[in-house]
């Protein structure tokens, strides 16, 4: 029964046992799936979407993927009806059957994007990724461009620091609107059914996930760093599969 679902103890967190009445809040890149050479190249294990769907059902819908990615990417990689927050919390779809909520946030001037394009033209291997209210310069394929990308993005944000933040990501620099974060996404989800009243368990690997972890702890739950708690995305997927197994820990009451 959904109300009795229990998560097994995360293997790498001494002292933390099984978790009753959980809400699962999962980062995508580097957490559910391994990091790849480019954003389009991530490989989603074929059984992952179905596993998340099954867990979401067990949790009466209290499972969300909370990612820096736009929702259209998440829908592409995980084509199942589960709650999602995209663009670092700038778009939120708590109910997969309803349209996404889009808080009123600023978008960067077109001139900023043009300057990013100019940098990409100078550094083959770099690329720009667009978000609803910002964009990213990726330099994983051209590491020598990292300092120039940082300098450019920092100078753009300095033109309007009240409206935008500069985010350091994994081999990437991102401009994000102020007022959106994984923390705001967790807060919004945990304040409404079916998440409200449950114990939030946020799992992520990156510095932007720390905002989500902090809010999960504030709501009486857990912020788990993937590397410590599960070792790798494969370790996390194994734990999720154990939780979802019909005779596994998920089916018992603590
Ligand atoms: O919040 P997340 O789900 O962890 O997303 C964070 C960013 O992930 C993506 O970029 C990162 O992953 C790419 C694929 O593995 C990798 O090529 C890139 O170097 C990483 O920075 C995504 O493209 C971004 O939009 C997300 O914000």
CATH architecture of the largest domain: 3-Layer(aba) Sandwich
Name the CATH superfamily classification of the largest domain: HAD superfamily/HAD-like
Q: Give the % helix.
A: 25-40%
CATH class of the largest domain: Alpha Beta
Main sheet summary: 6 strands, mixed
Name the hetero compounds present.
the ligand O=P(O)(O)OC[C@H]1O[C@H](O[C@H]2O[C@H](CO)[C@@H](O)[C@H](O)[C@H]2O)[C@H](O)[C@@H](O)[C@@H]1O
Portion of residues in beta strands equals: 15-25%
Q: How confident overall, as mean pLDDT?
A: 94
How many independent structural domains? 2
Q: Enumerate the spans where pLDDT stays under 50 for 5 or more consecutive residues.
A: none
Going by helix content, strand content and strand pairing, the class is alpha/beta
Number of DSSP helical runs: 8
CATH topology of the largest domain: Rossmann fold
Q: Give helix and strand order, one letter per element, not per position.
A: EEEHEHEEHEEHEEHEHEHH
Number of strands: 12
- How big is the Rg? 18 Å
Mass-distribution shape: globular
Q: Report the span from N to C terminus.
A: 13 Å
**Strand order of the biggest β-sheet:** 6-5-4-3-11-12
Task: Describe what you observe in this structure.
This protein is α/β, with parallel strands linked by helices and 254 residues long. The chain has two domains: 2-103 and 180-251, HAD superfamily/HAD-like (Rossmann fold); 110-166, no CATH class. Helix content is 31%, strand content 20%. It has eight helices and twelve strands. The protein has helices spanning 48-58, 71-77, 110-122, 146-158, 182-190, 209-218, 226-229, 233-244, and strands spanning 6-7, 19-20, 22-26, 63-66, 83-86, 91-93, 127-131, 134-138, 164-169, 172-177, 199-204, 222-225. It has a six-stranded mixed β-sheet, with helices on both faces. A four-stranded antiparallel β-sheet has the order 7-8-10-9, covered by helices on one side. A hairpin with a 4-residue loop joins strand 5 and strand 6. Helix 1 packs across helix 8, helix 3 (110-122) runs antiparallel to helix 4 (146-158) and helix 5 packs parallel to helix 6. It is globular and about 55 Å long. The mean pLDDT is 94. The ligand O=P(O)(O)OC[C@H]1O[C@H](O[C@H]2O[C@H](CO)[C@@H](O)[C@H](O)[C@H]2O)[C@H](O)[C@@H](O)[C@@H]1O is lined by residues 27-30, 35-39, 42, 67-69, 129, 136, 138, 140, 169-172, 206, 208.
